Amino acid sequence: MSESAKSGMTVATAFAGMRSVTPVVYRAGCPDCRARFELAASALRLAIGASSRTTFYSFTCPECGAAVRKPAGERIVELLTGGGVKTLRLHSTP
Ligand SMILES: [Zn+2]
Questions:
Q1: φ/ψ of residue 58, rounded to 5
Q2: Which pLDDT tens digits describe the chain residue by residue (94 residues)?
Q3: CA distances from 88 to 9, 24, 47, 81, 91 (A)
Q4: What is the distance in A from the centroid of ligand 1 to the CA of 2?
Q5: Which residues sit with Cβ closer than 5 angstroms to ligand 1, an ion?
Q6: What is the model's pTM?
């Protein structure tokens, strides 16, 4: 007579439905050492120039310490500013 009792198991909720505090991280890659990593908003800097050609974001590679600068399109600018990235305006609006 064998009796398998599965009554001791508790249902653990693996996910919480609402998360109000989600830290924003951005995926980035280093062209120097080819490392891939995630950066917090505070690790990024956004510089907005007069045109899209002078608009870029920069960060320091946590792996090799290289200063990386990449062009930022409209979409990226939106993402970065929305996430609280420090923005520097190189171009003074008339
Ligand atoms: Zn690197």
A1: -140, 155
A2: 555 555 555 554 555 455 556 678 999 999 999 999 999 999 999 999 999 889 999 999 999 999 999 999 999 999 999 999 999 998 766 6
A3: 54, 19, 5, 11, 9
A4: 60
A5: 30, 32-33, 35, 61, 63-64, 66
A6: 0.71
